[in-house]
Structure formats: C-alpha cells, structure tokens
C-alpha cells in the first residue's frame, strides 16, 4: 500500500547495490491520531464543567443577597463537580484499560456476585427514575479476571439502561452460562438506538443524543469502558436494539468453570 508508506531510506552498499529501507508507519500514525483526538476530546469535555463552575461561582457573588438563588447555584456547582469527578475517574479507568498487561493477577471472579453488587449500587438511581430492577442470575459462573472491573462494566450498562428509559418501565439483568461462555445481559424498555449507531456507541465520547447524555450526567465513556473490560476478560460486548422498543447489551466472556457454592467464590468478589 504505497499511500501507507511514510518512511523510506536508501543506503548505498557499494558498487551497484543499494539497500532500500521501507517502513510502514501507517499503524503508528493511526495510533498517534487516536491519541491526539482523545486528548482534544478530554480537554473539551473538561472545559465544560470547569467553565460552568466558574460562571456559577461568579453568579453566586452577584446574588449573595438572595439566599434562594445562592442555594440553587451552589447545588449546581455540586452537580458539576460530581460530573467532573466522574469524568476524571473514567478517563483514568479507560487509560488503564487500554494499556498493556491490564489484569496482572487474574483471580476467579463470580460474575453473578458482580451483577448483584452492580444492581444494588444502582437501586437509588432506579428509584429516582421510577424504574423496576429485576435480576435472574445463575450462581457459580466464574471467569478469570478482576471482580471490580466486571462490576464496573455491568454497573455502566445498568446505569445506561436506567438513564435511557422512561419511568414505569423495567430493567432486567441476567447472568447465565451458555456452553463455554458466561453471558451477562442487561435489557431495558427504553428509547432504543438506531442500527447505524450500534458500532459507534462503543467509541470514546460518542453519544447519540449529547443533550440527553449530559442531562443524565453521562460522560460518553461508559460503553468504551465496558468494551475494554469485556476484551480484557477474553470476551466481547454486543448490542441488540430497536428505537422505541428498548435495548439489550450482552457481555460474553469465557467461562472459567462452574463451581458449587462454597468454592473459590470469595476470591474474586471481595
Ligand atoms: P453516556 O455517558 O453518554 O451514557 P456511554 O458510552 O455509556 O455514554 O453511551 C454512549 C451512548 O450510547 C449514549 O450517549 C447513548 O446515546 C447511547 N446509549 C447507551 N446505552 C443506551 C441504552 N441502554 N439505551 C439507549 N441509548 C443508549
């Protein structure tokens, strides 16, 4: 591929012979582009809450004689700070997940326990949104990896399922063993996603509806983290969705073995 060649050197070897060194730097260039885009996105995303906080701080000074307004602005500063904290944590998580040798000491992870932990942590959000949370998990499905990462990935899917659904609907989380895989499925009855968006939603900072994502405190990094967690556990994530009919996100990971309770379950879930 001639267009991909960006480095070529000719070294004389004496007589009529020359050595032509051709280096294909297209891959390196692509990696560099991705890194640059990511940094540009990060600084853009950081500027929004930081700018908001400084405007709100000025507004508080102007409104200091009006306690109700001061309270309202102070609460919004709290909200922006939370968003900023979450964004920074997710950027750090993602940069770790895209590095090398991510899971240094894999342990047996009880996937059902991770799912229950993630669902429990989402209960307050579900109540706020009027969403019913259901679980149907098989005990004893283990994968090799890191429990906190699996819990984070399932938590991101549950958080999205709640955020992109209307009040009065249901979100269900299932964990089942299917042949040599563990399948974690998170299903909602929410807004759904157009087919042409299905691949892009796993990209960093990609949002179908930026306004809705921001309104729900979204960072645009949640699904990228899910994808990298799945891949770091030898698995993958897929989506089924129909606009207006909801979505199902499924993480499939190689099953490390089914253990009866009392087995090494505790090693991965602490
Ligand atoms: P965000 O923080 O914006 O939710 P994600 O990476 O988690 O970022 O998701 C990327 C985009 O995919 C979201 O902005 C949203 O448009 C879409 N999305 C993710 N999960 C769902 C879902 N369960 N239902 C509908 N849309 C979803």
Automatic annotation (TrEMBL):
Enzyme class: transferase
Record-listed E.C. numbers: 2.7.13.3
Origin organism lineage: Bacteria, Bacillati, Actinomycetota, Actinomycetes, Micrococcales
Reactions accelerated catalytically: ATP + protein L-histidine = ADP + protein N-phospho-L-histidine
GO molecular function term, any single one: phosphorelay sensor kinase activity
Residue ranges annotated for the Histidine kinase domain, each copy included: 41-257
Keywords: ATP-binding, Cell membrane, Kinase, Membrane, Nucleotide-binding, Phosphoprotein, Transferase, Two-component regulatory system
UniProt feature, compositional bias: Low complexity: 256-270
UniProt GO cellular component terms: plasma membrane
Cell compartments where the protein resides: Cell membrane
Name recorded for this polypeptide: Sensor-like histidine kinase SenX3
Keyword Manganese included in the entry's annotation: no
Chief place of localization: membrane
Residues making up the signal peptide according to the UniProt record: none
Residues of the full protein shown: 118 to 387 of 419
Keyword Flavoprotein: no
